[in-house]
């Protein structure tokens, strides 16, 4: 709810004992500034989590009564071994998304056909992912590359981004539609991989945290195929914000990246063995040429970006037609080309905005490029990419508002309250729209 937090430098802290000193300093580096803000006060480290939790509960309180619909019947209600029983079988470990299938099986054993239990798991995962997003953004803005520019406002920007991402109406398909737990769990493990990597490079227990990052990435490979981009996202983050040379990165962290990229083996084996599910997912669709699919995705990506800013109208099943006339997609194609060119240029120059573009493009690439998928356009694909759009809008919007308020000679204390009001309004509006959108899921 806070867009701009003003922080004061605390006195330096010196620790005389050896054990734990490095890790303490690493953590202190991110926590050393108190918050001069009308909402967040020093020491209230639980406040961001509690606020994200409250916002998520408000937005999705009416989702707990949403019934099983459409794919839920096939995934959960149909007589399916993987959702009716947890009897040992090696087959389950070679399904493309076995980890989520196991969670559905456990859900069914505990909740049977009571939908609230399934929705509770979905919402809990979403809130946990939002908390990880807050931690990643805060640590990035407080890190060595951006501390001078955003250090004082890191908590505020991170909390604003996490809040709006949590309650944004475009997220409703991923959270409210039970079957999209695949997207939720992939997103959670994706963020957890990056977060544990960041903790590892700041900790005296570096190897432990990095080992956890590899394990969480491996878990993520068993949730959804998009997770294959996670090791690349971590590597590109490392090069952008930490070590500006790939050669140095592999020299210093070569074993870690070997382990991280080796998790691809899990996805490769599962996709190769689980041929029926792979065909059902649309990777081998006939009648859709990759070029037609690519041209169509230019329109769809532009539509996703529009929904990120103005989430109306939302649609559960677009039935988006394939692009036949290249002339009609020129405006959308120009938008995507400019996005790609701007992202590449900014990343090569190590401008932070480049990584936001990388995050968006990289995560959409497996489903929105040249590989035909049965569902040409679905809103849940923006679950993780939406974060980059929100962060960009918040950071740039904050700077514009600050310049306007400075020009108007508004006092600093008043500026804080104005920014709190702006983010509060956006959050409250998003909660109301998401709450309303959930009612659409009450019936097929």
Largest sheet: 2 strands, antiparallel
Give the topology string: H per helix, E per strand.
EHEHHHHHHHHHHHHHHHHHHH
Task: Please count the beta strands (DSSP E, at least 2 residues each).
Answer: 2
Taking Cα atoms only, what radius of gyration do you get, to the nearest Å?
22 Å
Estimate the mean pLDDT confidence.
Answer: 86
The DSSP helix count reads 20
Which structural class matches the secondary elements? mainly alpha
How would you portray this structure in words?
The chain is an all-alpha fold. The two termini are 34 Å apart. Strands 1-2 form a two-stranded antiparallel sheet. The protein contains 20 helices and two strands. Helix content is 64%, strand content 2%. It has helices at 21-31, 47-60, 71-77, 81-84, 98-111, 115-141, 147-150, 154-167, 172-176, 181-202, 206-221, 230-241, 246-262, 264-273, 275-281, 290-309, 330-348, 353-364, 385-407, 412-439; strands at 6-9, 33-36.
Q: Which labels suit this protein?
A:
single chain, 444 residues, mainly alpha, two-stranded antiparallel ribbon, 20 helices, 2 strands, 64% helix, disordered N terminus
